[in-house]
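Running log. JK asked me to keep both predictions on one page so they can be read side by side. First protein, sequence followed by its C-alpha cells:
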Amino acid sequence: MNTEKATARRLTAEEVSELGLQDGIFVSAEMDGLPLDCYAPAFLTEPGKNFEGGSFTAKTIFGEEIHVLPDSAEERGIWVADKAGEEIEVLQSAGVLLNLALFVPNGNKESLESLYSTARDAFGAGIVQRWSEEVVAVPDVKVDLFEEPARGRKNASSQNRDRRALDIYPTRVRFLEPSDGWRFIVEPHKEVVDDTPTI
C-alpha cells in the first residue's frame, strides 16, 4: 500500500459547511467496508452549506462515498491541507484500473498468451493481471452505427440521422452510449462506393 505524509488539520462541522465542490479534503480511506489506517483525497458530493445535521458526504478519488460527522470524536473526521497542522498518512493514487475488451482476430490460446506476456513486459509482471476472462467467438462482420432522435417520426428520411461511427464491430456497440435524447440504429455495413465518373 503506497502512502505519503501530508500536513493537515481537522475541520469542524461549521468549517466544512463553508467548503465547496472544488475544495480538496482528506477523509478515511475505508474501501468497501475495509478499514484502512490512513486517509484518501476526496471532495464533497455537494456544497457544504447544503448538508444538514452536521453529517457530510464526500467521495474519494477512488470512487468511494464516505459519510462523516466531523464533530464526532469516534470518527476520523474531515481534514484539509494546512502547513501548520499535523502529519497524516494519505493513500496515493498509484494508477488506473482499465477494464479492457479485446478483439483478437483468429484468436487462439497462443495469441492470447502472447498478448498477455507482452503487456506484462511493458508494464511489469506485478502490474498486469487478468481478473476475469471471457473468451467469445466474434463474427468477423462490420456494422454501421447511426444515432437518431429517440422520438423520431416513423418513416422519416435518413437526412436527420447523425452518423456516429463507421465500420464498427457489433461487439463494440455495447460499450458505447448514445447521446441524451438519441438512440442507436445498427445496420449491416454498406461499403461507400464512389461512382463519380473519372477521366
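And the second, directly underneath as requested:
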Amino acid sequence: MTVPSGRRERKKAATRQKIADTALRLFLERGYDAVGIRDVAAEADVAVTTVFSHFASKEALVFEQDADFEQRLTQAVTDRAPHEPLIPALRREILALVRHCTADNAGPLWRMIEASPALRKYEESMRLRHAETLATTIAADPELPRTTTASRTIARFVIDAYSLAREAADPDAAVDEIFRMIEAAWEATSPPRRA
C-alpha cells in the first residue's frame, strides 16, 4: 500500500486501517452477519459517519485492500521494463498476491468470505471491476497492440487466475499452469506479422 506523505494523510490512513483491522477482528470473532457498522464504529472509537467516509459498505471493510490489489495489477503493466513481455510481468504480480493471500493467517478470512453470500457477491463485482481496469490499462499500452476484446479476455483470465490459484492445493503450481494457458491465449491474439 502506498504510504501517505503529509501528516493529515497519514492520520487519515491510520484511522482507515484501525477501522479495517477492528472490523476484521470483530467479523472473525463474532461472525460477519452478527456484526454491524455501529459495532465496528464503537469498537474502533469513531463515529459511524467516519466509517462510511472511509468505506462505502460493510462488505468493503472485508476487502479493505481492494484498491491496492487493483493498483498492483495495473502497475505490473505500466511499470514493467521497456520491451518486457506482458504475461510474465502479470504472472509475477499474481504469484506475489496469491502467496500473500494464502499465508497461514489468511484461512479464516477466506472461509468467512465463502460462507457469506453477500461477501461472495461483493467479491465477484470487485473482480469484474478489476478486470475492466486491467483491460483498459493493457489496451492503452502502445507496445501491446491487441483488440479491446483480446485485452478484456486476457484481463479476465488474469483475475480468474488469482482466484483459482488461491483455492488450489498447490497455489504456485496452479499459477504456473494457468499462466501457460494465458500465455498461449495472449500469443493467439497477436496481430499477424508482416512479411
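Observation for JK regarding the second prediction: The longest helix spans residues 7-30.
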